[in-house]
Structures are given as structure tokens and as C-alpha cells.
Design a protein that fits this description.
This protein has helices at 8-38, 41-66, 71-96, 100-106, 133-162, 176-202, 211-237, 249-277, 286-297, and strands at residues 111-112, 129-130. It is mainly α and 300 residues long. It has one domain. Strands 1-2 form a two-stranded antiparallel ribbon.
């Protein structure tokens, strides 16, 4: 078994990381109970979904660490869950503005700046798009397509893998792995672009609700769960990470990625509890904001 092949420091490391995963799960459960009791029902499920991202990734990484053969399934499970969380984060920003109708009323004559990352941060010549019901629909579609198509592509990958046609970390253009990964990467960029466009517009309005730390935590999970893991796997495939018998380079790279994710997601879970647990006041209705200057002009 795996535990029998570990020395004393290895067992201590595995036990510590497992304990961190269990603490992250308990912190999330306590936070979910608090959100269920204190947060309005319209925002409750969205905030719970977003807070669950880090504990779920930590749990799947812990399972993959103890059961190496399950790595493909645990990585795909975390990927599917986070695809849904990206859509939920966009919906949370709309909800925090008061909903779609109130948001359209607040930014009645406003425009979206689409020259933002990760797709068009260098294309400063792109025109600004007016904020309408149609543009909001396209932004929501940009994240919703990722929540739908990524699970479908992952299911296709698992089917091909069971048939022997899908090989992990195979960068050959003749295999399906490279093309599926590129397609998922393109869908990811479009989803992150939609979230970035919305955040750039509402970050000042929602500053009182700490939207900037919340967005930073969300970006932190994106970078760690996708970019960091991809870089480590590429290093392992190119033998930059040396093998350590009985572990091959790829297996060792997978272990390193999972162990780093457990520690990082533990920190994200604790910080998320602090950021989302604060009590925030609801924004004033657009009518009150518009009438406030006139009220100040009236004599007492």
C-alpha cells in the first residue's frame, strides 16, 4: 500500500496535509451554516458555491494524493466544479448590485470596457459596449458555456481514456488530448474574460462589499488550480522534475501539485471565511442615489 512505502517524514507530511483538508472542510461547513442563517435566500446558494471551491479542490487533491490512480478523476471533478463556480461568481456580482433590473437602472447610460484580460487586455482600440439586457445576456452566456461544455469535454476525455485513446500529458498533435486541452483552454479564457469585464465595471460600486478581495481570492484559485498545475505537469513530462523510485517524473509532479494545492486551498478557505463572513449593508436603490443631490438643495 501507499502508506507502507512511506518513511516517517513522508507519513508525517501526508498526515499533516490530510488534517489540513479536514480542517478546511469543517471551516467550510461552519461557514455554510452561517451563510444559510444570515444571508438572504437570493444570494445564499451562490455564496455557498463560491466558498466551496477551495475545500472541494483541497479534498480532491487529498484523495488523489492517497490514491494515485484516481488522479484523473479527482482533477476532472475539481475542474467541473470550478467551471460552475466561475459562472456563480459572475452571478454574485450581478446579485450584489441588486439584480439584473437594478443593475441596468444603475448603469443606464454606462458602457462595458471589453479591452480587459485575459483575452483583450492589449487591444485598447476596442470600442466600449453599452450596458443593455443583451450585453448582460452575452456576459452570462460567456460563463455559462464554460459550465456546460467543460463537463461534456471532460466526460469525452474519460470515455477516450477508458478506451485507451486518451493519454494524460500527451502533447502529440495526433492524439485527442492536445486538442481537447486547447479547446478547454479557449473556453476558459472566454469565461474569465466575461468575469473580468463585469468586475471592471462594478468594482467601484461594490467596493463597500469587499468585491476586490473576493475577486482576488477567485483569481488566486484560478491561477493555482490551472496555471500552477499545468506548469508542474509540463516540467514533469519534460523530466525537469527528476524521478524518485518508485515514483516516475509524472507521478512525482502530480504529488507535488496536489500537496501544494492542499496547503494553498487551506489558506484560501480560512481567508474566504474572514472576507465573506463580514456583515455588509445593502446598496441604496438607484432612485435614492439619483434624488440625493436634489434633497440636499432643499431648505431645511
Amino acid at each position: 500500500s501507499l502508506s507502507a512505502g512511506l518513511d516517517l517524514p513522508g507519513r508525517f507530511l501526508f498526515a499533516t496535509l490530510t488534517l489540513m483538508t479536514l480542517i478546511a472542510i469543517l471551516v467550510f461547513i461552519e461557514e455554510a451554516v452561517y451563510i444559510y442563517r444570515k444571508i438572504p435566500s437570493s444570494k445564499r446558494s451562490i455564496i455557498i458555491w463560491i466558498n466551496a471551491a477551495a475545500p472541494v479542490i483541497s479534498t480532491t487533491s487529498c484523495i488523489g494524493m492517497w490514491i494515485p490512480r484516481s488522479t484523473m478523476f479527482t482533477d476532472f471533478t475539481a475542474g467541473i466544479f470550478f467551471a460552475i463556480v466561475i459562472h456563480k461568481f459572475l452571478m454574485m456580482m450581478i446579485k450584489e448590485c441588486g439584480g439584473q433590473k437594478v443593475l441596468l437602472k444603475r448603469f443606464e447610460n454606462g458602457h462595458f470596457t471589453i479591452s480587459t484580460g485575459p483575452c483583450c487586455c492589449c487591444c485598447l482600440c476596442l470600442p466600449r459596449v453599452p450596458i443593455t439586457r443583451q450585453t448582460l445576456f452575452w456576459l452570462k452566456l460567456g460563463t455559462f458555456q464554460f459550465a456546460v461544455f467543460r463537463p461534456v469535454l471532460i466526460f469525452l476525455s474519460i470515455v477516450l481514456w477508458t478506451n485507451g485513446n486518451y493519454v494524460l500529458y500527451n502533447l502529440s498533435p495526433k492524439g485527442p488530448e492536445l486538442w481537447i486541452s486547447c479547446f478547454i483552454g479557449a473556453l476558459t479564457l472566454f469565461a474569465l474574460w466575461a468575469v473580468g469585464i463585469m468586475f471592471r465595471k462594478v468594482r467601484i460600486l461594490l467596493k463597500c462589499k469587499n468585491i476586490i478581495p473576493k475577486f482576488a481570492l477567485y483569481q488566486f484559485i484560478v491561477i493555482l488550480n490551472h496555471l500552477q498545475t499545468t506548469i508542474i505537469n509540463i516540467f514533469a513530462t519534460q523530466k525537469i522534475i527528476p524521478c524518485a523510485p518508485p515514483l516516475s517524473s509524472i507521478a512525482r509532479g502530480s504529488y507535488i501539485a496536489q500537496q501544494l494545492l492542499i496547503m494553498e486551498m487551506f489558506l484560501v478557505t480560512v481567508i474566504s471565511r474572514v472576507v465573506y463572513r463580514r456583515k455588509y449593508h445593502d446598496l441604496e436603490p438607484p432612485e435614492c442615489v439619483a434624488e440625493e443631490p436634489e434633497d440636499k438643495k432643499q431648505p431645511p
